[in-house]
Amino acid sequence: MAVEVERKFRVAGAGWRDAVTRSSLLRQGYLAQNDTCSVRVRVVDDRAWLNIKGAVLGAVRPEYEYALPPRDAAEMLHSLRVGPMIEKWRHIVPFAGHDWEVDEFLGDNAGLVIAEIELDAVDEAIARPPWLGIEVTDDRRFYNSSLVMQPWSQLRMILGERNGPGGTP
Length: 169
Fold this sequence. Notes:
- The chain starts with a strand and ends in an 11-residue tail after the last helix.
- 14% of the residues lie in helices and 46% in strands.
- The protein has 169 residues and is mostly beta strands.
- Strands 1-5-4-3-2-6-7-8 form an eight-stranded antiparallel barrel.
- It has helices at residues 70-79, 144-149, 152-158, and strands at residues 3-11, 22-33, 37-44, 47-54, 60-68, 82-95, 98-105, 113-118, 132-135.
- The chain has three helices and nine strands, in the order E-E-E-E-E-H-E-E-E-E-H-H.
């Protein structure tokens, strides 16, 4: 079984920006979501993927990903998508031997910045960059599939954050 080990954190501050090595615009839409999995199409530049991810809370989740012809991906996003699109800039930020993916969300999720790190094992030690905020790996509200239904523009009001990135306790 294909398994992803990933931890997610809010980002506190902009100290990561000077270390970005590359950036890409990601567009993704969900074709299905239920209690067992989500099915999404993601487009990055001129490449596209179909992704099936288990709806399990935590750092370890089943994940399957398959390349798609970009034209098919565009048609799926146009005719089969459920809910709005997620759009974000993904910035690659190396730190202490790992490449962090810092996602800067757009649209209704503008203002939300999440850092993700993929690991080889759930108990793998990581060095925390100084710009890392609170961990949200176990908070389903910060999963992309949840941000489609309750975007950051709504969630931040529930959390009591009016302006700024938050992320610090």
